Amino acid sequence: MVEVEGEVIPRKRWGAWLGPVGQSIGPILLGLVAGGILLLLTGRNPLAFYGDILKRGLFSSSGVQDSITRMAPLLLMAAGLIVAFRANIWNIGGDGQFLLAAAIVSGFGPGLVAVLPAGLGLVVLCLLAALVGALWTIIPALLKAVYGMNEVITSLMMTFVGVNLANLLIKGPFRSQKTSVPQTDVIPHDKLLPYLPGTRIHVGILFALVAVGAVYYVMTRTSFGLRLSVLGANPRAAVHVGIDVRRLTVVAFMISGAFIGLAAGVEILGVWGYVRADWNPNFGLTLFALVFLARLNALATIPLVGFYAIISMGGHYAARRAGLPDDFMLMVVGLILLFMTLTEYVAARRERRATRLVAGPKAALRPGGAHE
Question: Terminus-to-terminus CA distance in the chain, angstroms?
């Protein structure tokens, strides 16, 4: 439905449904086609390359399990980004929040799981990871809420600090004395998150799915979600209707950071058990594309994150087979981002033109409309 001049004009049902879907799937297809053209120019077979991705990431038992395991931290981070972006808060510091939480969990993890019961130790470490992620957003949150400073700059600067502080901790007080490689001590395998029966998929994926469902419910069914949407759409209107903008900004920022920190805890406690210096999976920038392709819809991130997990896990295998660097798939993701921007631009122009076409005749039909 489109509202024009105070009246509601129905759209075609299929068009209303296919529009958002096309704007989400279209950039992915265009990015893959552009990547295929680049493969052709370098003398590779695009069909063979993408076939290797599917073979490793989707059509093998181990590949499917690895892809689902990769989805756990990505979904948690996506949930955190949606909370921030719905309030028009650009939390660009996800990688710093993630790595600092990972370093803290890895540094304290071996000692905590040794003295606490297994289940309680994991809960404490997950809560600690969420707390670290939340606390690392306080400075950019307060600077934005109180002084109106651009959170893109402040959260990005906090990312640099967080990444280097994590490395400092790993190479300093958290460094293991059992290896010459700078890393933390390893949490025993039997103390990590348990696997789903009959698989190598840890239970963190269940936590992630619950978190995504909870964010979807909060954003669509609660007053808190409505306040975030109002704040994101028009901060002045939010003040006018009585929303405490400063408090809500800080809360949204901290919730976003908590989800990202929890993602780090799940990744360490479910997969690695330790962190090496200079390790950085760089999930943050990729997830920006996925979250916006999902139109900030938490449930819609699930298939998109699944798609990325498949090309991420299968992309390394395909790149090695094709004699390409692993960064080739990152370039494909960049192309998807580019086409997403172009698609948004075209869709916005079409929407404005359609509104003008409908509003023009309606204005002419009003008494005196031709002279207005």
Answer: 27
Say what the pLDDT of residue 366 is. 58
Percent of the chain with pLDDT over 70: 89
Q: Which residue has the tokens 């803290």?
A: 104
Q: Does the residue 38 lie in any domain?
A: no
State the residue range of the domain holding 94: 71-281
Distances (CA, A) of 115 to 20, 65, 110, 130: 51, 31, 9, 21
Q: 334 falls in which pLDDT band (50, 70, 90)? A: confident
Question: Higher-confidence residue: 346 or 17?
Answer: 346
Retrieve residue 95's tokens.
């990688």
User: Does the residue 138 lie in any domain?
Assistant: yes
Residue 339 token pair: 């086409």
pTM of the model: 0.86
- Domains in the chain, number: 1
Does some domain include residue 211? yes
Backbone dihedral region for residue 184 (phi beyond 0: left; psi -120 to 50: alpha; all else: beta): beta
Segment 352-360 shows an average pLDDT of: 65
Whether 50 is in a domain gets the answer no
Q: CA of 233: how far to CAs of 86, 87, 89, 315, in Å?
A: 8, 8, 11, 38
Q: Which residues pair with 276 in a beta bridge?
A: 183
